[in-house]
Automatic annotation (TrEMBL):
PANTHER family: HYDROXYMETHYLGLUTARYL-COA LYASE. InterPro entries: Aldolase_TIM, HMGL, PYR_CT. Residues 9-278 form the Pyruvate carboxyltransferase domain. CDD domains: DRE_TIM_HMGL. One of its GO terms (molecular function) is metal ion binding. It comes from the Bacteria. PROSITE patterns: PYR_CT. It comes from Subtercola boreus. This is Hydroxymethylglutaryl-CoA lyase. The keyword Metal-binding applies. The keyword Repressor does not apply. One of its GO terms (biological process) is ketone body biosynthetic process. Belongs to the HMG-CoA lyase family.
Length: 311
């Protein structure tokens, strides 16, 4: 396939939700607010801030309302929250003035969906349809996410037609953006290229977002394949934080600082300050009290002569 590489991309930072949720350390609300605000200074225009999941399911995110109320971000930053079900939407709409986008989701894998949220795919889609109407009526931007789009550890490869069929249903619900999650890191660059080629044909006018995990060390190569296929929207997590809680042990998202570094060195504009992204990741490292392993944290930024920039 010939390159359709865009000249610029948008990267949504998902660390404050997708990243934090799987971290074993309890992160204090004040620390979350401080880290999110450090990301806001790096130039992000979209940050996934919180999830309205039951506190007993993911205690790490139980302070989502306090975080939303406490953060101070530039007016240019769109704040997104993840909504797991209608009860979560009830709670979210009670503080609707504190966020701008709402994301609904489903897994393309029946088994993963059952293990993740204890519902069949069709039950989830029915609830998503009801939520979509309420989200749009509230004047919010509606996003949708399809987990295990590139494969599932329980079911293996997920048929492309199944994934894109779910995406088309989300588009019919009014979602203007659909994210495809490589939830446990099973994608490969060749399939990613074919996947997005087909997705762009079947979903004209919809913003398609790539979300990769680094389970098998292929996260950045998969992002490159998506870029070459024409993808202009990506999600990543600073410090390579997070992972999927189902199944246990799944590794984190691709590191935002590594993704920004790669794109910028390729001449693809991200609109982000790499030094400040790395600084935010290092601040997360300090907060968690352990070393994070993204290459950019370990090495620091590199200037255009190939010389390491000292910090």
């Amino acid at each position: 396939m010939s390159s359709r590489r865009p000249s610029s991309v948008v990267i949504r930072e998902v660390g404050p939700r997708d990243g934090f949720q799987n971290e074993p350390e309890v992160i204090a609300t004040a620390d979350k607010i401080r880290l999110i605000e450090s990301l806001g200074r790096a130039g992000f225009t979209r940050i996934e801030v919180a999830s309205f999941v039951r506190p007993d399911v993911i205690p790490q995110l139980s302070d989502g309302v306090e975080v939303l109320k406490g953060i101070h971000l530039p007016s240019t930053v769109s704040r997104m929250v993840l909504i797991p079900n209608s009860r979560g939407l009830d709670n979210a709409l009670a503080v609707r003035e504190y966020f701008d986008e709402a994301s609904i989701f489903v897994s393309a894998s029946e088994t993963h969906n059952l293990k993740n949220i204890n519902r069949a795919v069709e039950q989830t889609m029915a609830d998503d349809k009801a939520m979509a109407t309420r989200i749009l009526d509230a004047g919010l931007k509606l996003d949708a996410v399809i987990a295990t789009s590139f494969g599932c550890p329980y079911e293996g490869k997920i048929p492309l037609d199944r994934v894109l069929g779910l995406a088309e249903r989300f588009a019919e619900m009014g979602a203007t953006e659909i994210g495809f999650g490589d939830t446990t890191g099973m994608a490969n660059p060749a399939y990613v290229s074919d996947f997005f080629g087909a997705a762009f044909e079947r979903l004209p006018g919809v913003e398609l977002t790539a979300h990769f995990h680094n389970t098998r060390g292929q996260g950045l190569t998969n992002a490159y394949a998506a870029l070459e296929a024409g993808c202009e929207s990506f999600e990543s997590s600073f410090g390579e934080l997070g992972g999927c809680p189902v199944p246990a042990g799944s590794t984190g998202n691709i590191a935002t600082e590594d993704l920004v570094s790669m794109f910028e060195e390729m001449g693809v504009d991200t609109g982000l300050d790499l030094d400040l992204v790395i600084a935010a990741a290092r601040e997360a490292q300090s907060t968690l009290g352990r070393k994070l392993t993204s290459h950019s944290i370990l090495a620091g930024p590199v200037d255009w002569t190939g010389t390491l920039v000292d910090h």
